[in-house]
Specification:
Number of helices: 7
CATH topology: Spore Coat Polysaccharide Biosynthesis Protein SpsA, Chain A
Number of domains: 1
Helix content: 25-40%
Structural class: alpha/beta
Shape: globular
CATH architecture: Alpha-Beta Complex
Strand order of the largest sheet: 3-2-1-4-6-5-7
Distance between the termini: 24 Å
C-alpha cells in the first residue's frame, strides 16, 4: 500500500518542520506534499528544507483548491491512499495508523477523523456547529458522517479520479464527502484527538456559513447520477518543487 499526505498550507512556516517530522516518524514510507496556497512567510522553502515535496499557488486560492492540487498529485504519483492533514499541528500524525488499520479491512473508500467522541476541550459553539453541519452533510450524502468538518482524512486515490468539485474554499471538504458518497464510496469514521493550540483560524464565520448554505442548496437541487464525476482528471492550480 503506497500512501501520501497532503498538507494545505497558508503561512504555516512555523508549524511545518514539526508536522513533517512527526509524519516521517509515524509513517516513514509516506510521501508528504505541502501545497503552499499563496503564503508570504516562506512556507514553501521551509517545507522543502524539512524534506517535503511542494507545489505552490502564486496567490491564495482557498483550501479547496489546495486540496484539489493535492488530489491531482496523488493520482499522478500512482498512490493507493492519501491523507489530508492540517498544516498547523491540530492533527496528530501518531494517529495515522488508526486510519490505515481501518482501510486495511477493505470496508472503506474514505475515512474521516471524528472528534465527537472526545469533545471536553471543544468550544461549545464549534461543537454545536460540527453537530449541525454533520447532520446536514450526512443527510445529503445518505450515510452517517459524525464529524464532516474534520480535515483529517484518508482517501482511496482511485475514488478521486474524475471527481468534479465546484467549491474552492472550506466548503470543498463538505462537498467531496457528498460527491463521493453519491458515487458509491463507502465512508467510515476514525476517532481522533481534539487538539487546540495558539493557531489563528482562517475561517470567516459569516462568509463561510454563507458558502456552506450555498453548497447545501447546490447539492439539494443537483442530485446528478454520477455523484459529481467527470471523465477528465482534476486540473492542478499550479506546481513547484
Amino acid at each position: 500500500m503506497t500512501t501520501g499526505a497532503i498538507l494545505p498550507a497558508l503561512n504555516a512556516a512555523r508549524f511545518l518542520p514539526q508536522v513533517i517530522a512527526d509524519i516521517r516518524a509515524a509513517q516513514p514510507g509516506c510521501r508528504v506534499l505541502v501545497v503552499d496556497d499563496g503564503s508570504t512567510d516562506g512556507t514553501a522553502d521551509t517545507a522543502l528544507k524539512a524534506g517535503a515535496e511542494v507545489r505552490r499557488h502564486p496567490r491564495n486560492l482557498g483550501k479547496g483548491m489546495a486540496l484539489r492540487t493535492g488530489y491531482a498529485w496523488a493520482q499522478e504519483q500512482g498512490l493507493d491512499w492519501v491523507f489530508t492533514l492540517d498544516s498547523d499541528g491540530q492533527h496528530l500524525p501518531a494517529e495515522m495508523q488508526r486510519f490505515l488499520d481501518a482501510a486495511a479491512t477493505g470496508q472503506w473508500d474514505a475515512l474521516v477523523g471524528t472528534r465527537m467522541d472526545s469533545t471536553t476541550n471543544m468550544p461549545w459553539l464549534r461543537k454545536w456547529t460540527n453537530i449541525t453541519t454533520s447532520r446536514v452533510i450526512s443527510g445529503l450524502a445518505g450515510c452517517t458522517i459524525p464529524d464532516s468538518q474534520s480535515g483529517y482524512r484518508l482517501y482511496r486515490v482511485q475514488g478521486l479520479r474524475g471527481l468534479r468539485l465546484r467549491t474552492t474554499r472550506y466548503d470543498a471538504e463538505s462537498e467531496i464527502l457528498v460527491r463521493l458518497a453519491r458515487g458509491g464510496a463507502r465512508i467510515g469514521a476514525v476517532p481522533i484527538s481534539t487538539v487546540y493550540g495558539d493557531q489563528v483560524s482562517s475561517i470567516r464565520p459569516l462568509v463561510d456559513t454563507g458558502r456552506f448554505l450555498r453548497l447545501v442548496a447546490l447539492l439539494t437541487f443537483t442530485r446528478d447520477r454520477t455523484g459529481g464525476r467527470a471523465t477528465d482528471t482534476p486540473t492542478r492550480a499550479g506546481n513547484d518543487g
